[in-house]
Amino acid sequence: MTDREQADSEDSADSAANPSARPTAAHAWLAAARPKTLGAVIGPCAIGAGLTLRTGRFDGTGLAVAVLGGVSIQLLTNLLNDLVDGVRGIDGPDRLGPARAVASGWLTPRAIGIACVGLAVVALACAFFLAHHRSLWFAPLALLSLALSLAYSAGPAPLSHTGAADPFALIFFGPVACAATVAAQTGSFQNDGWWLGLGPGGLALSLLAINNLRDVEGDARTGKRTLAVRLGKGFARAEVILGIAIAALVAIIATLNGMPFAALSSLVVLVLVGSAWRIVRGASGTALNRELHMVGGVALAYGVAMALAVALGGGAA
Questions:
Q1: Which residue of 89, 162, 265, 290 is surrounded by the most CB atoms within 10 Å?
Q2: Cα separation of 303 and 39, whole Å?
Q3: pLDDT computed for residue 20 by the predictor
Q4: Total number of domains constituting the chain
Q5: For residue 52, which of 175, 145, 171, 180 has the smallest C-alpha distance?
Q6: Is residue 31 in some structural domain?
Q7: Residue 295 main-chain phi, psi, to 5 deg
Q8: What percent of the chain shows pLDDT beyond 90?
Q9: How far is CA 155 from CA 85, 159, 255, in A?
């Protein structure tokens, strides 16, 4: 079985479609939205909820608006990536990851564009609510997040094409998301979310590094200068291990900082030992799809486990 045939087989589990057979509209939209990536958003939000539960400042409305805003921006980023890469011809027939909706002809650029506008409106509405009821800082934070969402795929020098996306993944899918979730409930950005969020941020970094490692040959051919292309596969493999190590270190620090149940998060990270070993040993191409699914699942489980740990721990948020 060739790499492409293996990728098509794996794609059927994700998008229930092969590029050669048109899927249903629902499956096409799921392929474009990539719901499996939402664990990277929900994880840090869960930790933020745990921090407010710990101090009795939990607010369901603020949490729901924060999650809705974060999910909207993540879906917007995914749809824009599908749209722009499809129009530019970057997602070709030799793609090793899940098939893309625009490139495969399943959805029109106009349909994706309309959905993107709708998601941007939802994100701005959430930001307006939080800026009015919690903190004015949500206004510039939302504008910056939307700008980065657009800049990830679009513009003359997209973040995903230049290697600049990696640090943003670590920061915005970690400390920023976690601290903002607490602020959405309490009105204060001065909270433990900034350091606890480094855990899910590290796993988001690993996810992006694995994705770039899998696509390194194709990205090099299409002119995408990711860090894996710029600095080589060895660097990308080290980046994966670094992200996992950050998540484990945060769990250990939390355990020693009056949150004994954070050890659960350390156990969750241990699930990735096998993935890390296979990546270090040279896993490449479609073989990395399995590791992407594994790390994505662990990112969500890690967030839930850490949320329980901080909710049951002591100290101030």
A1: 265
A2: 8
A3: 47
A4: 1
A5: 180
A6: yes
A7: -65, -35
A8: 75
A9: 12, 9, 43
Range 152-155 contact pairs with CB under 8 angstroms and sequence separation of 24 or more: 152/77, 152/80, 152/81, 153/77, 153/80, 153/81, 153/83, 153/84, 153/85, 154/80, 154/84
Instruction: Determine, yes or no, domain membership for 197.
Output: yes
Domain that holds residue 209: 3-312
Sign of CA dihedral 231, 233, 237, 238: negative
Please report whether residue 133 resides in a domain. yes
Whether the model pTM is above 0.85? yes
Q: Which helix (H) or strand (E) holds 264?
A: helix 263-270
CB 166 within 8 A of CB 227: yes
d(CA 298, CA 295): 5
Q: What angle, 0 to 180 degrees and rounded to 10, lies between the N-to-C axes of helices 39-54 and 287-312?
A: 10
Copy the structure tokens of residue 213: 């490692």
Residue 213 lies in a domain: yes
Alpha carbon distance 135, 140 (integer Å)? 11
Specify the pLDDT at position 22: 79
Give CA–CA dist 274/23, Å, rounded: 34
- pLDDT per residue over 272-283, tens digit each? 999 999 999 999
* Burial (Cβ within 10 Å: 0-12, 13-18, ≥19) of residue 93: exposed
Burial letters for 257-286: b for 16+ Cβ neighbours within 10 Å, e otherwise? Answer: bebebbebbbebbeebeebbeebeeebebb
Contacts of 101 (CB under 8 A, 6+ apart): 28, 29, 31, 32, 82, 86, 107, 112
